[in-house]
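User: I'll paste a sequence; please echo it back and then give the predicted structure.

Assistant: Echoing your sequence first, then the prediction.
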Amino acid sequence: MAQNYDIKPEQSVELLQELHILTRDGKLNQDSRRKLKQVYHLVQFIEPLIREVVAEKGDVTIVDHGAGKSYLGFILYDLVLKALNTGEVIGIETREELVKTTAALAERLGFARMRFINETVAESISDSAIGKQVDIVTALHACNTATDDAIRFALEKNAPYIVLVPCCQAEVAAELRQVKARLLAGTPLGEIVRHGIHTREFGSQLTNVLRCLLLESHGYQLTVTELVGWEHSMKNELIVAKKGHKRGGARERAESIVDTFMLGNLKARFIY
């Protein structure tokens, strides 16, 4: 097999083949290279958090919401947890066939400290099999409201760390369209939603601003940045939250934003 310099030397080639990132003859196409680069970048952010938790308590539990094929969970296990010889990855996914597939792959590869659960985020909050506390909650491109559900799970579990790469979220944009006429009549800020493309993009931006304020109101300190270059992905915002101190006024600012943009129907999602 030809050497591929995009793959980390300690990475299991068999795993990448099973995830269909590598072909059977070891080739990496452009789409796979882009996907792998995103996951590797995310691992670089998460690995120090894992090591910090392990240094403190000797173990770590990572819960990955909207896990899908569990690219992130598998690569975290392969590159970090395997060498540490401790720690567990729990993938939460609503599609039963994916849960069966990923569980079978973990068993085949001997990744004994990985497990996969077929349930919604709401169900996972009260699932005694997960436990009352987890250390790191991740959600990579969890679509629509799944990122919000992952935040609620992390807050319920009092997770010290939360790592999010949000995907599309249509709720806020849809609500802005409903109140467009009132916004245009009531405030110059209504111009933000005059055109459909602006409504969509602003809705996405506003969603993440409200998510950040929610986390800050619950005592998290945030780093918000881009995951990789925009040429690799348009859904590229990375939010890393660490339990620390509450930001004074975060809840009040969120309430003001919700009121200004007439998003009262969504208040319960972003302010609690």
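The mean pLDDT is 90. The two ends are 54 Å apart (CA to CA).
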